[in-house]
Please model this.
Amino acid sequence: MPRTARPRRFLMCRPTHFEVSYAINPWMDPAKPVDTELAVVQWERLYELYLELGHRVDLIDPLPGLPDMVYAANGATVVDGKVLGARFRNAERAAEGPAYLEWFRSQGFTTHDPVHLNEGEGDLLLTGRHLLAGRGFRSDSDGHAEAQEFFGRPVIGLDLVDPRFYHLDTALGVLDTDQVVYYPDAFSAGSRAVLRRLFPDAVLVEETDAEVFGLNLMSDGLNVVLPEAATAVAARLRERGFRPIGMDLSELLKGGGSVKCCTLEIREAA
Model:
């Protein structure tokens, strides 16, 4: 069956204040120089691509002192027009959750202030039937239970075991309602078994493509936007009937994020 692109609505944040001034994941090194102007240029290419593909993109104003606010996917989780705010583990990012939740309130969404840890779509990824939920480094099981109660959708907890892939969206990408791509060794043995049961036809990738954030992607059901360095992932997706589109977000990778990290999907009520 041919793949079909479906228009999406996204929220993004321009990396006006992007820098790496602290290290809260293995990819961040404050000693390495960061070119903020280049980061903005790369981000704008992603933004423009989404518009060219027919998607709607809203923008939230970047706030000084919050260099990671560009990683909009971590700011909240939006399902059926309901918004679960983010509660970050690291103090450096704590103010991002309220900032994103205030934007959604100003737009008239139903919102929920989180009690437990969750880092938005970094660790909560929606498939056709479930919310896949990463834990082990940033989010926790109490946050998963809170998401299930708020959204009324079954949440499947998955244990992440490799600190390089500290969020679920660095280890697994949702391609369509019933199709995912993931790096098996990022997960515990039990979680790999769960993924095999849920997605027996999943696309599996090697470490080399996971290391260039090839799983930190955004798919509209046909077009899959991903880091251009993830050439093997692109080839596998092309074999499955998807249309991979490579992007250079190398500057933003210095903060530990790529395409998906920069993209929060707004799923409105049906």
Observations:
- The chain has a mean pLDDT of 97.
- The chain has seven helices and 15 strands.
